[in-house]
Amino acid sequence: MLEQLLIFTRGGLVLWSSCRAFGNALKGSPIDALIRSCLLEERSADSSFSHESYTLKWAFHNELGLVFVAVYQRILHLLYVDDLLSSVRQEFSAVYDPKRTVYNDFDETFRQLQMEAEARVEEMKKLKQSGRAPPVQSKKGGGGQRALTGSQRNGTKKGSSGGSTKDDSDGDTGNGRLVSNGVENGAKGSNKSPVHSKGKENDAPDTGAFDVNKLMMRSKTGKKSDVDKKSGPTKGQPKKAVKKKRVWDDAPKEEPKLDFTDEKGDEGMEREVAVIRGESMMDKEEVISSESEGEEEDEVEGAKPGAKKKGWFASMFKSIAGNNSLEKADLQPALKALKDRLMTKNVAEEIAEKLCESVANSLEGKKLGSFTRISSTVQTAMEEALLRILTPRRSIDILRDVHAAKEQGRPYVVVFVGVNGVGKSTNLAKVAYWLLQHDVSVTLAACDTFRSGAVEQLRTHARRLQIPIFEKGYEKDPAIVAKEAIQEAAHNKSDVVLVDTAGRMQKLADLSTVANARLIDGILLTKFDTIDDKVGAALSMVYVSGAPVMFVGCGQSYTDLKKLNVKSIVKTLLK
Hints:
Blueprint: E1 2-9, E2 14-17, H1 22-25, H2 30-39, E3 49-51, E4 54-61, E5 66-73, H3 81-95, H4 107-130, H5 150-156, H6 166-169, H7 181-192, H8 212-221, H9 226-231, H10 265-275, E6 320-321, H11 328-344, H12 349-363, E7 372-373, H13 374-390, H14 398-407, E8 412-416, H15 424-437, E9 442-446, H16 454-465, E10 469-470, H17 478-491, E11 496-500, E12 523-525, H18 536-545, E13 549-553, E14 561-562, H19 566-574
Parallel strand pairs: 8-11, 9-10, 9-11, 12-13
Antiparallel strand pairs: 1-2, 1-5, 3-4, 4-5, 6-7, 13-14
Helix pairs in contact: 3-4, 11-12, 11-13, 12-13, 13-19, 15-16
């Protein structure tokens, strides 16, 4: 049974509801959760949204700025919901007036539409049971023409013979995975291609990488095979640089010493700390260069060689539309090019596809002004979507939270988690250095009791920064070490405890014993200076986890920690 169908504007004004007391009828405010977690986060490409015991589905009317949401119990499988949403969308749009705020006369229309949708589903079930093929319905059909029967209406729908719709094929694309792009793309590729063994496939000709017939032909003609070419360097190619060997015995005096341990003592450490007392990049405002702002301008026909080139996006589509309603077919060429561009910037394919689908849903039905390109409209919509995703939805002022915890008489605890080798300990030291610059006392907790050398590494950072460290060696329970470190910090009136952990692949929810596990609160992007313009990993992580980027590590020194410039990231993704 349908719990509720709600119609409201994009501004939040509720126009009509099938349940009069909609504020009290549904538990847990599923509509608010849908807006907050799905629509505002550009996840409208998902087929449905689950919240507590409810499942929600939605439809848009972008030209009028209306949103239609259906809510029903998760345990039920209501097959008529999509058809009902389309019918309600068509009927309500016909009577919608921006000056009206009450539509009590729509109750009877809705009941009629619901009965017709249920009747169509029952008819399809009977056809399936009898072995007859059910009629194919298009996505645009809906239930607008109520004077016709179900079979007659299917015959009059536009594009009813066009096969299945996109919603039918994308039912399982809503489950995101926080995996690396290489693993994810590899998994997808393996589903599309057959499995080969030693260059051969079952019942297939020998067309692998090592074709025996080709090698025999090459040997007869006397030509050098590709394998032989790869075996040695060709003429004109520079030889690979050989690493210079260290001289262990009788080393010359000018050679640097091999012992890299610190022998400066306490006085030397004070001088070294004084040297690294530079201003952290977190407290500096990054200025975006405006040199390439005009790169997307159109190229004038007949321009001289050497003139400014037009952007990649504007150069591909020159179609101009005026006062025409956009359809998904019109948007597909621009969205395809935009998806490919995002993937070249290291955005995961699944996420790029969902973003493009979400942009298509937000533009479908809108009217273009005169001399307006579809490509520029799509790019503007994508830019706004990326800004909404990457901009934090809550305050990420750690210093304010630290002072709030201090007033409550407890230390502020930050736990660093992540896979092996991402730079947790190094960036933990950067965060500690930034906190010290703001007169915040810090204690380090060495809870990586698994990796060899982890405690010594954190001990070195603590000695250089002259801050206390709580450690209990290796092969100890990390949770117990962290608990005792927090107690010790509270006893010593320390403001912040930074907890270092071992690298693990599990997510936090996998090992939690409570129902509502606490997941990631924020993201620290490490080694950001090594990715050039492939910044799509930042978008992928924020989209999957929903957590904001709080710090960006961009070097090896303690000052190399800065904030994420959202506008700069969006500009890089779309340039």
